[in-house]
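Example S7 (structure tokens).
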């Protein structure tokens, strides 16, 4: 069985810059999964530090209103990996999931770490490159011309164990 992970679509990230294209792609994919009665699992990053925008008690840590109502499950995490010290593995086992589709934020951290952790746990993994986004850019990493999504997608693709698609390829291969 397939399941979709929607990682860290939270107010603190969405309000950082214009992610309307990424959100639209995520919503289309979510609707495909919902239309097939396939689980949609949202991951929410939470922290305990009072000054963190991801403090569990702050509105900025809440799932963004544009997509949160689609969640069949919401799992909280405190690290980049959606698996580390969370209930995700148990939830997936109970659902009989063997193939995970990855979307969400931040491409080079939580999405990539989760994709690798999923593969390490024996899941087939499809990383939908242009249905991820990041608050970081070429200036953050001091690497002129860096396209973070493409870089991460290329690295994961080169692993030859994680399927990397863009939204158009996803629709062609898996969409309704």
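Recovered sequence:
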């Amino acid at each position: 069985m397939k399941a979709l992970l929607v990682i860290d679509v939270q107010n603190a990230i969405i309000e950082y810059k214009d992610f309307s294209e990424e959100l639209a792609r995520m919503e289309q994919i979510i609707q495909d999964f919902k239309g097939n009665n396939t689980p949609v699992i949202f991951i929410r990053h939470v922290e305990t530090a009072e000054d963190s925008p991801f403090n569990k008690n702050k509105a900025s840590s809440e799932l963004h209103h544009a997509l949160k109502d689609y969640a069949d499950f919401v799992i909280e995490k405190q690290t980049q990996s959606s698996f580390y010290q969370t209930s995700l593995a148990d939830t997936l086992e109970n659902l009989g999931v063997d193939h995970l589709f990855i979307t969400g934020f931040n491409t080079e951290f939580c999405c990539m770490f989760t994709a690798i952790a999923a593969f390490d746990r024996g899941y087939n993994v499809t990383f939908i490159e242009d249905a991820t986004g990041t608050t970081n850019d070429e200036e953050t990493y001091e690497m002129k011309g860096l396209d973070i999504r493409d870089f991460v997608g290329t690295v994961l693709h080169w692993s030859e164990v994680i399927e990397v698609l863009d939204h158009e390829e996803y629709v062609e291969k898996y969409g309704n």
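Notes on this example. The longest strand covers residues 124-133.
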